[in-house]
Design goal:
2 strands, 134 residues, mainly alpha
Length: 134
């Protein structure tokens, strides 16, 4: 089970990534961490929850594909399914770019952010987590 603060951070990431999607831009881990008040180093578990519990579970585009490494500006190494065939660096970048284009093409991010935050944020579980965070 995820630690409560990790889920809270995952919910906090949603509107920032949705804004990037609507503006058709990427964001670095450091920039995203600053926006949610966390070191980029500590975003990994929250991003896993975002990906697995929020995006993939609800069949949404991979919003996390908008996050890039700094300073190289390349994609993170998190966009391959376990057991998938290896890709060249060029193939991998094309794959990530196709994920980004799906994110940019999706036009319901505001609605989705609101629904996901309400769904996960209004549970008793999350009310307890928010109380602990304060």
């Amino acid at each position: 089970m995820a630690m409560l603060p990790t889920v809270v951070v995952a919910l906090d990431l949603l509107p920032h990534l949705a804004k990037c999607a609507k503006e058709r831009k990427t964001i670095t881990y450091a920039e995203l961490g600053t926006l949610v008040g966390k070191s980029a180093y500590y975003l990994s578990k929250s991003l896993d929850i975002l990906k697995d519990k929020f995006l993939l579970a609800h069949r949404l585009p991979r919003l996390d594909a908008l996050i890039i490494k700094n300073p190289t500006k390349g994609a993170a190494d998190r966009f391959l399914d376990p057991g998938s065939d290896p890709m060249t660096a060029e193939e991998y970048e094309k794959h990530v770019e196709s994920l980004r284009q799906e994110v940019y093409a999706y036009d319901r991010w505001d609605e989705i952010v609101e629904k996901l935050q309400a769904h996960y944020g209004d549970s008793e579980y999350m009310k307890h987590a928010v109380a602990l965070k304060q």
